[in-house]
Amino acid sequence: MSKSKHQQEREWKGRKQSQNPHGKVRSFEEIADETRRDGNK
Q1: Is it the case that residue 38 has pLDDT exceeding 90?
Q2: Measured between alpha carbons, how far is 10 from 19 in angstroms, rounded to an integer?
Q3: How many CB atoms lie within 10 A of CB 31?
Q4: What b/e sequence results for 3-18 when a residue is b if at least 16 CB atoms lie within 10 Å of its CB, and e otherwise?
Q5: 12: phi > 0 → left, psi -120 to 50 → alpha, else beta; which?
Q6: CA 11 to CA 13: how far, in whole Å?
Q7: Mean pLDDT across the chain, nearest whole number?
Q8: What's this model's pTM, rounded to 2 decimal places?
Q9: From residue 25, how far is each of 21, 28, 40, 41 by CA, in Å?
Q10: 3: Cβ–Cβ under 8 A, 6 or more apart, which residues?
């Protein structure tokens, strides 16, 4: 038996949302802090 359309969509959405292909998203503060550290070299 095949899965119901609703169940397939729910599983697909779960897989889609759990992806994080570009790594952790950094906050603006983290980026600014990193820029300051690199500028002092």
Answers
A1: no
A2: 15
A3: 10
A4: eeeeeeeeeeeeeeee
A5: alpha
A6: 5
A7: 80
A8: 0.37
A9: 10, 10, 24, 25
A10: 11
Side chain identity at 19, as an amino acid letter? Q
Q: What is the 3-state secondary structure (H, E, C) of the chain?
A: CCCCHHHHHHHHHHHHHHCCCCCCCCCHHHHHHHHHHHHCC
Question: Which pLDDT score, from 0 to 100, does residue 20 have?
Answer: 67
CA distance 1 to 19: 28
What average pLDDT does the segment 21-41 reach?
A: 78
Q: How far is CA 37 from the centre of its chain?
A: 25
